[in-house]
Amino acid sequence: MIAASSVVIGVVNNILSNRRAEKSKQIDLFNRFYLVRSNEAWWSNLNEFLYIHSWEDSEEWLEKYHPAKNIEAYNSFTNLMSYFNSIGYLVKIGELDISNVADVMGTPIIPVWEKAKPLVYEWRKSWSTIYRNFEYLYDETVKWREANMPSFYRTT
Predict the structure, then answer these.
(1) Regions of the chain where pLDDT drops below 70
(2) HSE-up of 74 (CA within 13 Å, CB side)?
(3) Residue 6 within a domain
(4) Is residue 48 within 8 Å of residue 73, measured between CB atoms?
(5) pLDDT value at position 96?
(6) Which helix (H) or strand (E) holds 121?
(7) pLDDT at site 8
(8) Does residue 130 lie in a domain region?
(9) How far apart are alpha carbons 42 and 104 in whole angstroms?
(10) Radius of gyration (Cα) for the chain, nearest Å?
């Protein structure tokens, strides 16, 4: 009986240790992404995209922001989109918890996706998977915020 109890205690301890290690891994990964946001250049990219860049359709966007015409603006855009696409992938595969991401990082996710969505949908006619993980992140962020923060900020 003592041997069986020792085995059970060992298994429970192992499970708890694995859970703590997994939680620690998620926190570390989340902090790495969050630290990117503490960079002034990241906020400049975000604000430039949201408040300065403007276009009517994907053709006008290409005329203004194609890398051959405006490499800085193009890099700013792809940096933001890739950042959120990466976070979306990690949420999708369970490496980041949507509650942490949506609660702490959700405010920029929503307006960036809503502004970029028409471009992305146009580009998907040629490249069907472009920024699909960002769209997933947006959808999950909206669901989480509607359930947990009903008065959250939306651009539309």
Answers:
(1) 1-27, 29-36, 152-156
(2) 11
(3) no
(4) yes
(5) 87
(6) helix 98-123
(7) 53
(8) yes
(9) 16
(10) 20
How far apart CA 63 and CA 79 sit, in angstroms, is 19
User: For residue 111, is it within any domain?
Assistant: yes
Number of domains in the chain: 1
Measured distance CA(3)–CA(64) in Å, rounded: 72
Residues 6 or more apart whose CB falls under 8 angstroms from that of 113 comprise 84, 134, 135, 137, 138
> In the block, which residue shows the tokens 């630290």?
35
H or E element that contains 87: helix 71-92
Residue 3 is assigned to a structural domain of this protein: no
Question: Could you tell me the residue range of the domain that residue 60 belongs to?
Answer: 39-148
45: left (phi over 0), alpha (psi -120 to 50) or beta: alpha
State the SS3 of 22-50: HHHHHHHHHHHHHHHCCCHHHHHHHHHHH
